[in-house]
Amino acid sequence: MFLKLLNLSLLVAFPVAWMAPLLKAGLLPFFKLSEISVLSGLQSLWEKDIILAVAVTFFALVAPYLKTVGLALIHFNLASPKLLPPITLMGKLAMADIFLIALYIVIAKGVGIGRLETGWGLYAFTACVLVSLYCSFMTKPATAGDVAKPQKT
User: Fold this and answer.
1) Where are the alpha helices (DSSP H) in the chain?
2) Distance between CA atoms of residues 89 and 83, nearest Å
3) What sign does the CA torsion over 47, 52, 56, 58 have?
4) Residue 78 bridge partners (DSSP)
5) pTM of the entire predicted model
C-alpha cells in the first residue's frame, strides 16, 4: 500500500516541481537573479525552437506523468501488467532532462559568464524522477496469468 500511495503522491509532486525554481540565473553579479522553472523554461523554448520544445515537453512533463498514471493503473489492477516494461522505459527517459539541466549548469559555470545558482526545484524534480523510478523498480513484473504487485520491502 505504501508503494501505491508513494506513486500517487507524484501526481501532485510533479506539477509542484515543474513550477518550482530550477535555476537562478543572472548576467552580472550585481543584479537580481531570474528564476527559471521547468514551465518557464518550456515557455521560452516554445517561442524559439518548437522541435526542441516538443522533445523537452515530452521528456519533462508527459513521460513522467504518463508513467505515474500507468503505474497507478497497474497497482490498482486497472491495466495489464504487460505495460510495466514500457512504463519503466518512460521513467528512464524522464531522467534524461535532469542530466541536461546538470550539463547546462556545468557549462554555464565553466564559461564563467554571469551567475548561476541551483534552486530547490531542481532537487524536487530530481526527487520526483527518482521516486518514480523506485516505484517502477519495486513493482514486481507479472508472470503468466499473474497481476503485477508492489514488492514487499
Assistant:
1) 2-19, 38-48, 50-57, 63-75, 84-94, 96-111, 120-138
2) 10
3) positive
4) none
5) 0.71
Please enumerate in sequence order all residues whose Cβ is within 8 A of that of 118, keeping only pairs 6 or more positions apart, or say none: 22, 23, 24, 105
Q: Could you tell me the sign of the dihedral formed by the alpha carbons of 32, 36, 42, 43, in that order?
A: negative
Bridge partners of residue 139, in order along the sequence: 150
- DSSP E strands in 1-147: the ranges are 21-26, 34-37, 115-118, 139-140
Report pLDDT digits (tens) over 39-87.
887 888 788 888 888 888 888 888 888 888 988 998 898 988 888 888 8
| Joined grid coordinates for residue 87 | 512504463
Residue owning grid cell 506539477: 15
Contact 88, 137 (CB under 8 A): yes
Residue 10, classified by CB atoms within 10 Å of its CB into exposed (0-12), middle (13-18) or buried (19+), is buried
**Phi then psi for 29, rounded to 5 degrees?**
-65, -15
